[in-house]
Design brief:
By secondary structure, this protein is α/β, with parallel strands linked by helices. The protein contains 9 helices and 8 strands. The protein has an 8-stranded mixed sheet, sandwiched between helices. Helix 4 links the parallel strand 4 and strand 5. The radius of gyration is 17 Å and the shape is globular. The two termini are 30 Å apart. 47% of the residues are buried.
């Protein structure tokens, strides 16, 4: 996909990985709808992007991705403003073992809903022009993290859902590619809270294991993840891919056996 002239919608776009994804899209000539629950930080991100890329290239929409009505409205407003939609990145995520149901709602339910909304507007079956959806999981979507079992479950869910939906897109010739991104521990605001008592909840006794695990695995920087993201968006051959990004190996792909039920 040639990104110049395309329109993207990114959830959790105000900071961290979402902001890095938005920036790499803008650098390559796309227009981006920035969705985030944090109004102040979201407006700051838009203002910063405006100075570099121009005010017409982005819009900021306050959106709680766990609200079905707010997410639907954000998609409608994006298309109302930019008149098209080509790229969806379901990136918003949290780590919260204490409020574990919220963790599932943000990390998995909103990704499912965002994928379905993306298909509603982009699928050729619905008269759309096609496009690409990138769902953001985590290395925890491939390997379990013992101090974050619900986070692990939600991210495994994103991987499984994305792979299945990529198969749907092929089988039904929808013209939409769907890939999943699985970065390791990344230098973002979420990382700073991952070993906190509040985040660990009933697993607070595993705080030192969390700290040692992060030190052993290593921390990657958002621009590296954005590079992988750009690859998944751009390469027309990639559908149903599970991209890993780690400190040790950089960007690579997780290969599963080719059995399909």
């Amino acid at each position: 996909m040639l990104i110049a002239g395309k329109v993207a919608l990114v959830t959790g776009a105000a900071q961290g990985l979402g902001k890095a994804f938005a920036e790499v899209l803008l650098k390559n000539g796309a227009k981006v709808s920035l969705l985030d629950i944090n109004n102040a930080v979201g407006q700051e991100a838009k203002d910063a992007f405006d100075k570099i890329y121009g005010a017409q290239q982005t819009m900021f929409i306050h959106c709680d991705v766990t609200s079905e009505s707010q997410l639907k409205d954000a998609f409608e407003r994006t298309i109302g403003n930019f008149l098209q939609l080509d790229i969806v990145c379901n990136n918003a995520g949290i780590a919260d073992e204490m409020n574990w149901q919220k963790c599932v709602d943000v990390n998995l339910v909103s990704v499912i809903r965002g994928t379905y909304l993306g298909l509603q507007y982009m699928s050729r079956k619905n008269g759309g022009a096609g496009g690409v959806i990138i769902n953001v999981s985590s290395l925890a979507g491939i390997e379990p993290i013992i101090f974050a079992p619900v986070y692990t479950a939600s991210k495994h869910g994103v991987v499984g859902f994305t792979r299945a939906m990529a198969g749907v897109c092929t089988a039904e010739n929808l013209g939409v590619r769907i890939n999943v991104l699985c970065p390791s521990f990344t230098d973002t605001p979420i990382l700073k809270s991952i070993s906190s008592q509040e985040t660990l909840g009933q697993f607070a006794g595993l705080e030192q294991i969390a700290i040692r695990t992060m030190a052993a695995v290593g921390i990657i920087d958002p621009p590296l993840v954005a590079e992988g993201f750009l690859q998944l968006v751009s390469a027309e051959s990639k559908n149903g891919e599970v991209m890993r990004i780690t400190k040790g190996k950089g960007i690579d792909y997780h290969n599963y056996s080719k059995h399909h039920l």
